[in-house]
Automatic annotation (TrEMBL):
Catalytic activity, EC: 3.2.1.-
Keywords, comma-separated and alphabetical: Glycosidase, Hydrolase
NCBIfam families found in the cross-reference section: PRK09589.1 (NF007154), PRK09593.1 (NF007158), PRK09852.1 (NF007356)
Designated name of the protein: Glycoside hydrolase family 1 protein
Hydrolase recorded as keyword: yes
Family matches, as SUPFAM superfamilies: (Trans)glycosidases
Active-site feature positions: 365
Single GO term (MF): hydrolase activity, acting on glycosyl bonds
Organism of origin: Corticicoccus populi
The keyword Nuclease is assigned to this record: no
EC class of the enzyme, as a word: hydrolase
Cross-referenced InterPro entries: GH, GH_1_N_CS, Glyco_hydro_1, Glyco_hydro_1_AS
Superkingdom of source: Bacteria
Length: 471
C-alpha cells in the first residue's frame, strides 16, 4: 500500500514577523507599512503608529521566542516558517549598512530552532515593506526597490548561510492585485493607481525575486529557493460555457505570477491581460535573461478557500469574506469570517500546480481562524476545546495525503498561525488560528501567557505518526 506521506515530509507551522514579534521600535527597528494599518491590510492608513494597532506589540515573540520555539519543538515541528522584518535589518530600507541588533535577533531565533532540530523556512518579504520606501519611492512602482531588496537579501543570505536552507522571496505575491499597499508598499491610493503602474510594480517584484534567487545560489548552492502565491481554485457557478470561461480567466490571473517564477517568462495569455488594461511593461536591459535563468526550486502557497466565478456576477449575491473576491458557493460552509471551507479545493490546487509545473510543492499556509474560548479541562488546566479546528485540519490533511497518493511531490505543510497572532486582513486577535492560545485580546488587554489548545496534542500526534493518525 502507498505510504500517505513521505518519510522526509516537513511538518510544521508558520508565522509572520509583523503579526507576532511586537517590539516594533526596539533595537533600531524602523517602521513598516504594517505599523500604520491598525485595521488590517485593507483598512485605513494612519499618519504613524497608533495605540489601537495590535501589531505593534503582537504577541511579544521578540522577548518570548525561546518559550514559543520550545512549544513548537514539543509538537515535533520539523520546519518552522517565519519572516525577517526588513526594517529590523535596514530600518528605512535604503541604507547602505545593516542594523547589527536586528541581525543578532534572528541569529538567536534560528539558533534556537536548530537547537531542537527545526529547519527554519524564511520569507524575505511578508507584507513588511519599509514605510520609508513606501512614502519616498511609492513602493514597488519604483525600480529602485530592486536594488534595495537585493542589498537586504544579500545581507541576510550571507549572515544566515549556515543556518537557513529554505527561503521564500515574497509572501502571496499575487495579493498585490487586491492589496497594493500591504503587499507592494504602494503609497498611491488604490483608486488613483493606474493598471500600468500596478503591473509595472509586479514586474519589479518578479525581477527582484529572480535576482535574489541568483544571489542566493551564489552564496550557498545548497539553498532551496521558492516563490509563494495565494492558491484559490475557481469554480464556474453553473456549467454554462460563459461561466466556465469566466472561471478559466480568473485562474489565469493567479497563474501569471507562478508561471513567471517557475517558467521564467511571461505566458502568452499575459499579452491579452496587458492589452485589455492598456499596460505596456517596461523591461530594463537584462530583465528577460534574469527571469529565464533564475527560476525557483519549489512552489509554495497558502490555501484557505476556493471561489466561484460567473460571467454575470451582478445576478448573484457577493461573498462576504473571500480574499480575492468571487461569489459564495452554495455547497460549502463558511468560517466565522465568511471564508468558505473547501478541503477538496486543496486537493485540486496541489494537482493543478503539479500538473502544470512538475516541481516540488510546499503548503506554507492553511488553517482556520475562529473565536476560541479559554476553559479549564478535567485536570484544572486552561485550554481551548477546539474540535472545530481539528476537524478542519484533519479534512484538509486528508486531501494532502490523497494528492501524495496521486504522485504529487509535496515537500511539507506548515499550518498558519501555529501560535495565535494578529490577523493580517482584520488586525484582530480574536481571529485565532493557533495550536497555542495567547492571552491577549482585541482591546489590547491580557497577560500574554501561552496555553496549549486541544489541537496542540492532536497535531503532535499527526507529526509523530507522519499522518497515520488522520481519520
Amino acid at each position: 500500500m502507498t505510504k500517505r506521506f513521505p518519510e522526509n515530509f516537513l511538518w510544521g507551522g508558520a508565522t509572520a514577523a509583523n503579526q507576532y514579534e511586537g517590539a516594533y521600535n526596539a533595537d533600531g527597528k524602523g517602521l513598516s507599512v504594517q505599523d500604520v494599518t491598525p485595521d488590517g491590510g485593507f483598512g485605513q492608513i494612519t499618519d504613524g503608529p497608533t495605540e489601537d494597532n495590535l501589531k505593534l506589540e503582537g504577541i511579544d515573540f521578540y522577548h518570548r521566542y525561546k518559550e514559543d520555539i520550545k512549544l513548537f519543538a514539543e509538537m515535533g515541528f520539523k520546519v518552522y516558517r517565519t519572516s525577517i522584518a526588513w526594517t529590523r535589518i535596514f530600518p528605512n530600507g535604503d541604507e547602505t549598512e545593516p542594523n547589527e541588533a536586528g541581525l543578532e535577533f534572528y541569529d538567536k531565533v534560528f539558533d534556537e530552532c536548530l537547537k531542537y532540530g527545526i529547519e527554519p523556512l524564511v520569507t524575505l518579504s511578508h507584507y513588511e515593506t519599509p514605510l520609508h520606501l513606501s512614502k519616498e519611492y511609492d513602493g514597488w512602482t519604483n525600480r529602485k526597490l530592486i536594488d534595495f531588496f537585493e542589498r537586504y537579501a544579500r545581507t541576510v543570505f550571507t549572515r544566515y548561510k549556515d543556518k537557513v536552507k529554505y527561503w521564500l522571496t515574497f509572501n502571496e505575491i499575487n495579493s498585490v492585485l487586491h492589496a497594493p499597499f500591504m503587499s507592494g508598499g504602494i503609497w498611491t491610493k488604490p483608486e488613483d493607481l493606474s493598471k500600468q503602474d500596478l503591473y509595472q510594480a509586479i514586474h519589479h517584484e518578479l525581477v527582484a525575486s529572480a535576482k535574489v534567487t541568483k544571489i542566493a545560489r551564489e552564496i550557498n548552492p545548497d539553498f532551496e529557493i521558492g516563490c509563494m502565491v495565494i492558491a484559490m481554485p475557481t469554480y464556474p457557478i453553473t456549467p454554462h460555457p460563459d461561466d466556465v470561461v469566466s472561471a478559466y480567466h480568473s485562474e489565469r490571473q493567479n497563474y501569471l505570477f507562478s508561471d513567471v517564477h517557475v517558467r521564467g517568462k511571461y505566458p502568452n495569455y499575459a499579452k491579452k491581460i496587458f492589452r485589455d488594461n492598456n499596460v505596456e511593461i517596461e523591461f530594463a536591459e537584462g530583465d528577460e535573461e534574469i527571469l529565464l535563468e533564475n527560476t525557483v526550486d519549489f512552489l509554495s502557497f497558502s490555501y484557505y478557500m476556493s471561489r466561484v466565478s460567473s460571467a454575470h456576477p451582478e445576478k448573484y449575491k457577493k461573498g462576504r469574506g473571500n480574499i480575492l473576491g468571487g461569489l459564495p458557493n452554495p455547497h460549502l460552509e463558511s468560517s466565522e469570517w465568511g471564508w468558505q471551507i473547501d478541503p477538496q479545493g486543496l486537493y485540486l490546487a496541489l494537482n493543478d500546480f503539479y500538473d502544470r509545473y512538475e516541481i516540488p510543492l510546499f503548503i506554507v499556509e492553511n488553517g482556520l481562524g475562529a473565536v476560541d474560548e479559554l476553559v479549564k479541562d478535567e485536570n484544572g488546566e486552561w485550554t481551548v476545546e477546539d474540535d472545530y479546528r481539528i476537524d478542519y485540519m484533519n479534512a484538509h490533511l486528508q486531501q494532502v495525503g490523497r494528492a501524495v497518493e496521486d504522485g504529487v511531490d509535496i515537500m511539507g505543510y506548515t499550518s498558519w498561525g501555529c501560535i495565535d497572532l494578529v490577523s493580517a486582513s482584520t488586525a484582530e486577535l480574536s481571529k485565532r488560528y493557533g495550536f497555542i492560545y495567547v492571552d491577549r485580546n482585541n482591546d489590547g488587554s491580557g497577560s500574554f501567557e501561552r496555553y496549549k489548545k486541544k489541537s496542540f496534542n492532536w497535531y503532535k500526534e499527526v507529526i509523530e505518526t507522519n499522518g497515520e493518525s488522520l481519520k
